[in-house]
Structure to design on (266 residues):
C-alpha cells in the first residue's frame, strides 16, 4: 500500500491532469463558439456576449494579479519580521495582495477597500481618496502601500478598520501581547491612534495606543494582561487606525504587520 505522501502526490498529479484537460476542452469550446457566432441570431448573440463578458472579467483578474506579482522583486512577498517567541504574524491584504479597484475617490462612510479593510468617517464633503500602489523599492518587505489623500475635512473622525483573521484570536489569552509594526509617512505631522478591539461574548475589550511618530517605522504593543477579556469567550478581533485632524494631508502607510507573543513572566 502506498504511503500517505505518495498517495497525496498521486492525487496532485491527477488534479493537474484533470485541470489541463478541462482547460483544453474549455478553450476548444470557445473556439467553436467564436466560429459559430456569425451564424447566431440576436438572442443567441446576446447570451453568448454575456457569457464571454463574465469569463473575461475572471481572466482579466488572473492576468492582472499574475503580471503584477511577476513584476515584483523575487523576494518572499509575504515575509513578515516575526518578533522573538511570536506564535502568530500577519500582513493585511492591503499591503500583501492587489485589491480591485486599486483606488477610490470620494470615499463614502463605511466603504470597503479589499476584503479586510473598511473606511469610516463622518465628513459630509467626501473629499477623501484612497489607493493602493506597488512599492517601488526592493528594500520594502511589503509589496504594496496604502495612501490616503485628505482634502477638506470637517468631520469628527476618520478611521481605517482592519479585520484580523481567525488565527489572531485562536488560543488568545490574557498572557498574550499583540504587537503592531508600521511604516508611516505624512505630509503634515499629525497624531495616529491604534485601537485593538477584542469581542468576547456580548462585550468588546478596547486598548488604545498612540503611534510614536518620531521616525518612519513605528511599533506599539497591546498587553492583554491589563484588560478584562474573558479568555473563554473570545470571538474575533479588529484594529482601528484613527487619524487625528486629517484635513489637507497625505498619509502613506508603506507597511503594516501584526504579531502576538506570550507575555514574559516576571
Amino acid at each position: 500500500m502506498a504511503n500517505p505522501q505518495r498517495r497525496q502526490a498521486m492525487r496532485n498529479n491527477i488534479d493537474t491532469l484533470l485541470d489541463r484537460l478541462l482547460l483544453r476542452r474549455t478553450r476548444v469550446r470557445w473556439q467553436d463558439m467564436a466560429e459559430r457566432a456569425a451564424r447566431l441570431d440576436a438572442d443567441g448573440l446576446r447570451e453568448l456576449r454575456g457569457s464571454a463578458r463574465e469569463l473575461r472579467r475572471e481572466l482579466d483578474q488572473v492576468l492582472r494579479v499574475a503580471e503584477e506579482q511577476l513584476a515584483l522583486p523575487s523576494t518572499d512577498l509575504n515575509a513578515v519580521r516575526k518578533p522573538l517567541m511570536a506564535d502568530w504574524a500577519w500582513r493585511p491584504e492591503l499591503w500583501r495582495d492587489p485589491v480591485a479597484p486599486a483606488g477610490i475617490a470620494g470615499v463614502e462612510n463605511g466603504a470597503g477597500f479589499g476584503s479586510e479593510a473598511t473606511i469610516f468617517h463622518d465628513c459630509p464633503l467626501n473629499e477623501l481618496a484612497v489607493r493602493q500602489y506597488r512599492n517601488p523599492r526592493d528594500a520594502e518587505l511589503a509589496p504594496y502601500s496604502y495612501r490616503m489623500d485628505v482634502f477638506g475635512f470637517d468631520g469628527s473622525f476618520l478611521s481605517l478598520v482592519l479585520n484580523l483573521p481567525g488565527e489572531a484570536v485562536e488560543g488568545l489569552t490574557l498572557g498574550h501581547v499583540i504587537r503592531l509594526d508600521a511604516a508611516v509617512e505624512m505630509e503634515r505631522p499629525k497624531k495616529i491612534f491604534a485601537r485593538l478591539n477584542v469581542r468576547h461574548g456580548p462585550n468588546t475589550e478596547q486598548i488604545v495606543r498612540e503611534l510614536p511618530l518620531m521616525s518612519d517605522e513605528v511599533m506599539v504593543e497591546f498587553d492583554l494582561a491589563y484588560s478584562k477579556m474573558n479568555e473563554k469567550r473570545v470571538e474575533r478581533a479588529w484594529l482601528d487606525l484613527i487619524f487625528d485632524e486629517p484635513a489637507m494631508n497625505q498619509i502613506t502607510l508603506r507597511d503594516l504587520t501584526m504579531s502576538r507573543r506570550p507575555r514574559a513572566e516576571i
Observations:
- The chain has two domains: 4-71, 88-262.
- The domain at 88-262 is CATH 2.60.120 (Jelly Rolls).
- The CA atoms of residues 25 and 31 lie 10 Å apart.
- The mean pLDDT is 86.
